Amino acid sequence: MFRFANPEYLYALLLIPAFIVVWLLTLFAYRKRMKRFGERKLVHGLVEEYSRKRYITKFALMTSALAMIVLMMARPQFGMQTTKDTKKGIEAIFVVDVSNSMLARDVQPSRLEKAKILATTIIDRMQNDKVGLIVFAGEAYPQLPITNDLVSARMFLDAITTDMVSIQGTNLAAAISLANNSFTANKRVGKAIVVITDGENHEENALEAAKEAADDNRNVYVLGIGSTEGSPIPQGDGPMTDNNGQVVVTALNEEICKQVAKEGNGKYIHVDNSNNALQQLQNEIDKLQHDTAITAYDTYNEQFIAFAILALFFIVAEFLIFETKNPFYRKFRLFTK
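Given the sequence above, the corresponding structure tokens read:
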């Protein structure tokens, strides 16, 4: 099937008859002026190597080149081909601990800021994926429903603070259950729950929640952030103290983090001041990539190149032909017998 993708450009072909009319009028006026000097053949004979055929040929070549350019702009198409576009992607929900212990600075600049940097970097590398955001401490709250708007995800992530949840604690069970119920119904994509926490003061039932998520084909990855040696929690007037005036030291509870990741069919990753955790998490997310959509669509084969070649040929030919006979080409005699 032959067609033009931009047929509106074909109206420009109407300029060609107009050019021909103008050219003929100019030629008529030229001949009329020449009669004032004498017989036309005699006057032309005085012009060395004059060729009326060359003059007409040059105009015909330029007119043909113009026609080819117009046809090329109209994008002639002939024949069709089927193209398949395959997209890969996952759904990932980041579950960020915002309890006061996340203010500890055993990981620079702090546990919470490190968690935000890590999650933001992962989101920056995503393309066809969807992300969601949940914050939790003693309770869990959705911060951003699952979406493919990665720009908004980065904005919401950057706005996370420890003031978002007033009830202190580390309710992993509530956070994982909320994340498990926040995915779309699409079963063709890999789904990941990325929990970033220090695991301290955790509530019960976290293992059961992780097992339930795994049964629903969700992979639970736990990023344990902080040091097992512990660190004080900085506040405006100094480190946090308990009722006895003793400095509160918060330490990473790796044991619960590893157990939750195991029950959730995921992986435990320790987050320290290096970038090792980032690469490990990226590798795990890459394993979940599946073909989310295979779109097949038909496209027409473009044929404008042939018209472009013809236009170039006509332009070059017109450039090489002079209105008078060139001594260099005299021996070829293309326009005279």
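The longest strand covers residues 76-97. Try to locate this feature in the token string yourself.
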